[in-house]
Amino acid sequence: MTDEAPQWFYCLRHHTVEGPVGCRAQDRLGPYATREEAEHALEKVKERNAAWDERD
To answer: How far apart are CA 56 and CA 42, in angstroms?
Structure first.
């Protein structure tokens, strides 16, 4: 057992959530603290992009 919190990633290549072992780092978003956060990664990206566009 480790003291580290679980890490989850969203794979841009396969459109799936992965644990620490998965596709290349350049194909993933994260890490996220929970699986649910990783499942909504693309929504978060869209929200952040919209906020950045509004600032410009």
So the answer is: 21
Reported pTM:
0.81
Is residue 2 scored above 70 in pLDDT?
no
pLDDT on residue 44: 96
Q: What does residue 14 show for φ and ψ, rounded to 5 degrees?
A: -105, -10
Is residue 17 within 8 A of residue 40, CB to CB? The reply is no
For residue 19, how far is the Cα from the chain centroid?
Answer: 11
How do strand 16-18 and strand 28-32 relate by DSSP bridges?
Answer: unpaired
d(CA 55, CA 48): 11
